[in-house]
Design a protein that fits this description.
- Helix content is 30%, strand content 7%.
- The protein is mainly α.
- The chain is globular, with a radius of gyration of 17 Å.
């Protein structure tokens, strides 16, 4: 099972990188948010307060372990003049905004450290779990 899981993860990573490279070839001056919106439109949410602002990207694309963020940062000068400033580096974020506007620690679903359970009461689990567990 672990071999199948590893192969699936590697296949997804290759597909994501291929998409990024094609996207950058077609849109060399694009932003990280524009790429994520193109790749995962279901994770780009229109702002609810003011019209005309860019969409908000799901916070999981900004955690330290985000493969998307890492791939983007590894390709800041891809298809650009080597002397150019390059695209903006995307830093990891540790906070996310809840629906009520409160900032809380972002759940890191990618590392397996997600506590799960009732996050409002703080009575979540402590063992974490693997989102790609086939057992």
């Amino acid at each position: 099972m672990m071999r199948i899981k590893k192969e699936a993860e590697e296949s997804c990573l290759v597909a994501t990188k291929d998409h990024l490279l094609e996207f950058l070839r077609e849109h060399p001056n694009a932003s990280y948010n524009e790429w994520i919106e193109d790749l995962h439109p279901e994770n780009a949410h229109a702002g609810t307060l003011l019209e005309g602002l860019s969409k908000t990207i799901d916070h999981r694309f900004y955690v330290e372990e985000s493969d998307h963020r890492r791939l983007w940062n590894d390709n800041l000068h891809t298809y650009l003049d080597p002397n150019s400033k390059g695209r903006a580096f995307v830093t990891a974020r540790a906070k996310q905004m809840k629906d009520n506007g409160e900032y809380v620690d972002a759940e890191d679903l990618l590392s397996g450290d997600f506590a799960g359970g009732d996050t409002e009461s703080g009575k979540g689990g402590t063992d974490g779990f693997d989102l790609i567990n086939f057992d």
